[in-house]
Design a protein that fits this description.
heterotrimer; A mainly alpha; B alpha/beta; C mainly alpha; A: mainly alpha; two-stranded antiparallel ribbon; 4 strands; 2% strand; B: alpha/beta; Rossmann fold
């Protein structure tokens, strides 16, 4: 019995190593990418470039972090596009009458409310699969986006037109605390909170189990509906946060601000290694996913790789990530 | 052999098949006479379906030979076997519900039939030949069970089948529909087609079959012409076995009435009512599809059921969803552990603590060290063999997986633990461990509702047995005082009164 | 006979929706009921309908293709670029073939590698859009070929737009494929019940893969016609095309569980949105309010579809 166990342990060690590489492929890729770039072009490591990279992070990482929970829970949320646009225009419009802090808070609340609405619709019709959620959230995205357009009459408003104090938004968009940008700081705080939520709380575990096996989770007493509501509210809230960071930086709020965010967020999450099948995944991985995607353009530009090659490489990484995801579960 | 081989359309010699942990077929041999109606009887797990799936090409056998119509069959796909003239009609039917009758009959043979018109014309012919007047354009989803069966027969005929295997054809048929089926079967016999008829309804077996093979525990017990059997013989052969030390001593801790279920009615169940006592192991015996799982799912709140009553310790309780049931101290180990019980890609400790997360939560946060402690406690207590607590539960053997689920429920110290096929697919050693566990649970004051397709298991572990047949409780027995044959007979619906059950045990108190 | 016709109509919620909209429009004094408008409506909808017919194949087979937007855009750009060097027929042929190859890759990855089709096609769509942007540097590529432009901007017999005629031709062809060929019938079986289809000897993987190829081909065709209509190859379209088209097909009655639906249903599903848009235009409803309505209609119909399935599931 003991003999068998050791032999098994040895071969399983090898398996473990390979498994480790596979699991952390993305980290490996990032490290290699960074190393190669740093060696070939030392400018990569300059403070200026690092700050630049950190800045590009902001909005996408917020939305992607929110999306991570939805995907872990076994669903998907395409309504983030609409929510970004809606929150941005509403928040901006409320600064003048209400002041920047109330406007900010209402904006964040709005994102959460949108998430609540979406989840209520999903729960009420008993949608349990990702495909069903796909179409419902797509419809909701159109709805939220349309509300944004109606609200502003299609016009884009500028932060600079606001006569009241907008220093908070300027700080989020441009400000620095020492070397680190304010938005990066916000990101770190939020990441910490979300990480703790995912790994240390009851709801985090419940969401994970729901995504892993809805039936088994339900049969052990987990409230599936509550989990669904939670994931969409978190996603809505995080999307709202991303919207605020975005419009703080570009200082305009266009009612189509959110264009493209849903696909980029989903892809970042998948590239990061969170499985679309649900259950397994982590916010840290999503950070890596966004990092890789952001880093890719930065590094490739530094290395002066042609634009065409960049697209090809980006596509290749995408396909590889998706393929890896599927093989991990066969 | 005085008879020539030509007389046998199918000869099976020493066919065996094992699955991980269980030997489904053990050196099975039988000969099927051409043009006969050959019955196969046996309880759940006797090996009938496995044998049929091997014949039809769904499974491959481990060893043995099969000779069909003079040709030795090495390995075959389901489609090839149909083309050779061997068709099988499953209990669940192999039909695409979203397509029409005509297209289902000729599935995949559209071109051969020269398109839609040809398909429907030929389908019409086939249906008419068995006296069935269903429109070929109707969707299968709109058909009743009996009608779907006709389609499957027509499909078999479309392949010029020489041998048609029917697996439990009469479940869900009315008496009138059954009569029609008997007519058709006789018609097929006149055409020279051989039929293998698998059923637990002994009336039908005696009515239709020329020869009958009885199987048990993956082996053939005997094959005889029907005239050489009596009902009693058959039941004995299905059930009888020498009981070795497979089971621990039967616990006897039965106390007062703990739970009462009244008037449980669903699509399948008819007015199910029964009581459960403290410290009792109540066994539910019945054939697959009789409604046992439906009963326990209703108790656990897993299905939306209305207008029934559940009383616990005399007080009515409302159980609408599993978390309600858990609050009342009911646990449920489901039938299919991989789909309903475990989150496969997750770790052992996560799976074990799934039901007790509430107790580990304080101010919303999980106490991870306590969690680890609980998981380790159960791994030790149940002797779960796993490299570590963090191993993915999908990598454990069936027995250990099952122990994880049982451990999960033990943690909440349930008053009532429902076990649905707890030892399915588990090796003998692990089975014994689970029996010991069951004993300990009732000795500690809990009650168990046990569903098992293995008759010896239920009979040896239960204090009381209810037989379920076609959604009704057909009998209540004390396994120490009743023979296995009698219980089995009740489960297959052979006792006189099918609509009420006799409270033998109750009246004895 | 009458009974079955009535039951078909009431089962087809999309058809009912279209009829209801037509009836509502009777009460308003607009140009809705003019030959010009009705033909124009059909014309505007034609390109998306062609793509929808392609997508119908994948949905019936039980998968979905979200790369059609990127496919469409890329095909349009490629055909315009090729026109600078090659005759029309060759350019079109190559662009269509490329669409088919993209479909083949989608199909291969989805079916033979068992990757979830919706994410692989989503990724593919993004990739294709990215490639399109790179090739054109995000500037639209103008087309100078007059003959090509005439394809989508002319009329047959001075009455019926050529585009509509092309759409009808595609409709008939795809209808024939689904209803009268072995492949089409097999596809229904594969989508309806994969296991049963497999046991009946159908090559399930190949059937599903071919569905993807068809989806790619018609998406490319749509893109080519779009390029002809706009006379440019632009990479700015196509973000929401995939979802809109899939939605339209589902609204029309093809379930994404697979196995049911068909070309006429998809046509009607797309018409629901086409008529909705046209009617709202006629009623001078604000463009943004239109968008709102469209979103609500999508959610409502999918909600109903899910809810019906939920009721069926819980009937114990």
């Amino acid at each position: 019995m003991n003999m068998n166990l050791t032999m098994k342990a040895q071969s399983s060690l090898k398996k473990k190593f390979l498994g480790f590489i596979k699991e952390y492929m993305i980290l490996v890729a990032i490290v290699i990418l960074a190393l190669v770039t740093a060696i070939a072009e030392p400018r990569f490591l300059s403070l200026e470039n690092m700050t630049n990279i950190m800045r590009q992070f902001g909005p996408l990482i917020m939305v992607s972090l929110g999306m991570t929970f939805v995907i872990i829970g076994g669903f998907i949320d395409l309504s983030v596009t609409g929510i970004v646009s809606l929150v941005a225009v509403v928040t901006l419009s409320l600064i003048e009458p209400l002041g920047q802090i109330p406007a900010l808070l209402i904006g964040l609340a709005l994102g959460a409310i949108c998430g609540l609405l979406t989840s209520t619709i999903i729960i009420s019709c008993g949608a349990l699969t990702q495909a069903e959620a796909l179409f419902i959230t797509f419809g909701m995205s159109t709805v939220y986006g349309a509300i944004a357009l109606i609200y502003t009459g299609g016009e884009t408003n500028h932060l600079s037109w606001v006569t009241r104090d907008t220093s908070l938004f300027k700080a989020i968009g441009q400000g620095n605390v020492g070397f680190i940008s304010v938005s990066f700081l916000i990101f770190l705080v939020v990441l910490a909170i979300l990480w703790v939520f995912q790994n240390k709380t009851y709801m985090g575990r419940a969401i994970s189990l729901t995504g892993g096996n809805k039936t088994a989770a339900w049969l052990t007493g987990i409230n599936i509906n509550r989990c669904i509501r939670t994931i969409y509210v978190i996603c809505g809230f995080m999307t709202a946060l991303g919207a605020i960071v975005l419009f703080s930086r570009v200082t305009t709020a266009s009612p189509v601000l959110g264009k493209g965010y849903e696909t980029n967020a989903i892809l970042s999450v998948v590239v990061g290694g969170t499985s679309l099948a649900g259950g397994k995944g982590s916010v840290l991985r999503t950070v890596l996913g966004v990092l890789l995607v952001t880093l890719l353009s930065n590094c490739l530009n530094m290395l002066e790789v042609s634009a065409y090659m960049q697209v090809v490489l980006r596509g290749a990484i995408l396909i590889a990530a998706i393929w890896l995801d599927s093989t991990r579960h066969r | 052999m005085t008879k020539t081989d030509q007389d046998y359309i199918l000869s099976i010699r020493d066919v065996s098949k094992s699955f991980p942990g269980v030997k489904a077929l053990d050196s099975v041999s039988m000969d099927i006479r051409r043009g006969s109606i050959h019955g196969i009887v046996g309880e759940n797990g006797a090996g009938k379906s496995t044998l049929m799936k091997i014949l039809s090409g769904v499974y491959t056998r481990d060893s043995g030979t099969i000779v069909f119509d003079g040709e030795e069959i090495k390995s075959i796909t389901p489609h090839e076997s149909m083309q050779k003239g061997l068709s099988i009609i499953y209990q669940e039917f192999n039909l695409v519900k979203t397509m029409s009758v005509g297209e289902n009959i000729f599935l995949g043979r559209f071109k051969e039939m020269k398109g839609m018109r040809g398909t429907h014309e030929k389908a019409r012919e086939l249906l008419d030949s068995i006296g069935c007047n269903i429109s070929t354009h109707k969707l299968v989803s709109e058909l009743s069970v009996s009608e779907r069966q006709m389609i499957e027969i027509a499909k078999a005929l479309s392949f010029d089948s020489k041998l048609i295997i029917m697996d439990e054809p009469s479940s869900s048929l009315t008496t009138e529909e059954m009569r029609k089926l008997v007519d058709i079967i006789n018609q097929l016999k006149e055409k020279g087609i051989t039929i293998i008829y698998i059923s637990h309804k002994l009336d039908e077996i005696f009515q239709l079959c020329d020869t009958v093979t009885v199987m048990r525990d993956g082996q053939v017990i005997d094959t005889r012409p029907i005239s050489e059997y009596t009902r009693a013989d058959m039941i004995s052969m299905m059930v009888g076995r020498t009981i070795e030390n497979e089971f621990p001593e039967r616990p006897n801790c039965v106390g007062d009435i703990l739970m009462e279920v009244r008037s449980l009615n669903t699509r399948k169940l008819r007015n199910v009512s029964f009581k459960l006592r403290k410290g009792e192991i109540l066994g539910l015996v019945g054939l697959v599809g009789a409604g046992r799982t439906e009963i326990v799912r209703a108790i656990f709140g897993a299905d939306k059921v209305k207008n029934h009553e559940i009383l616990i310790e005399g007080k009515p309780v409302r159980i609408r969803k599993p978390s309600d049931a858990i609050e009342y101290g009911i646990g449920f180990v489901p039938e299919d552990r991989k789909i309903e019980g475990l989150v496969l890609p997750f770790a052992v400790d996560t799976n074990i603590t799934m039901a007790c997360l509430d107790s580990l939560t304080k101010y919303g946060f999980l106490n991870e060290s306590s969690e680890k402690g609980i998981a380790q406690k159960h791994v030790d207590a149940l002797d779960i063999k796993t490299p570590s607590l963090k191993t993915r539960v999908e990598n454990l053997s069936g027995g250990n997986q099952q122990k994880c689920i049982v451990g999960r429920w033990l943690e909440i110290k349930p008053r009532i633990l429902i076990l649905d096929e707890p030892t399915r697919g588990i090796d003998v050693g692990a089975k014994y461990e689970i029996y010991l566990l069951m004993k300990k649970i009732v000795e500690d004051g809990g009650s168990i509702i046990l569903i098992s397709s293995e008759l010896p298991e239920v009979l040896n572990m239960s204090n009381r047995v209810l037989t379920i047949c076609d959604g009704r409780i057909t009998g209540e027995f004390d396994p120490t005082k009743t023979s296995a044959d009698e219980i089995m007979a009740s489960a297959i619906g052979l006792c006189g009164e099918e609509n009420e059950y006799e409270s033998n045990y109750e009246s004895a108190i | 006979m009458i009974k079955s016709v009535v039951s078909i109509i009431t089962k087809q919620k999309a058809f009912l929706a279209v009829v209801v909209m037509f009836i509502i429009m009777l009460f308003f004094p607009t140009n809705f009921y003019t030959q010009y408008n009705l033909l124009d409506m059909l014309n505007s909808a034609s390109i998306l309908m062609i793509i929808a017919f392609g997508v119908t194949f994948t949905l019936i087979g039980g998968a979905c293709d979200l790369s059609v937007g990127g496919n469409m855009v890329l095909a349009g750009i490629i055909v315009v670029k090729l026109l600078e060097h090659l005759p029309i027929w060759a350019s079109i042929l190559i662009a269509v073939a490329l669409g088919g190859i993209i479909g083949l890759v989608n199909g291969y990855l989805s079916v033979y590698h068992k990757t979830e089709p919706f994410i692989i096609t989503l990724g593919m769509g993004t990739l294709l859009t990215g490639i399109a942007q790179q090739i054109t540097d995000a500037h639209p590529v103008p087309c100078r070929n007059m003959a090509f432009m005439r394809i989508a901007n002319s009329q047959i017999l001075n009455v019926v737009p050529t585009l509509v005629v092309i759409m009808l031709a595609v409709l008939l062809f795809t209808y024939w494929l689904l209803r009268f060929t072995q492949f089409g019938r097999n596809l229904y079986a594969v989508g309806g019940d994969y296991e049963v289809a497999k046991y009946s000897g159908i090559n399930v993987r190949r059937t599903k893969a071919i569905a993807f190829v068809l989806s790619g081909i018609f998406a490319a065709l749509g893109g080519i016609l779009l390029a002809s209509k706009l006379n440019t190859g632009a990479s700015t379209y196509g973000d929401t095309t995939a979802l809109e088209v899939n939605c339209g097909v589902v609204v029309g009655g093809t379930s994404f569980a697979g196995g049911i639906g068909g070309i006429p249903q998809s046509a009607i599903g797309m018409l629901v949105f086409a008529v909705l848009e046209n009617a709202m235009n006629m009623l001078n409803i604000d463009a943004y309010v239109q968008m709102l309505f469209k979103g609500i209609v999508i959610v409502a119909i999918i909600w109903l579809d899910c809810y019906t399935r939920k009721r069926k599931r819980e009937a114990v």
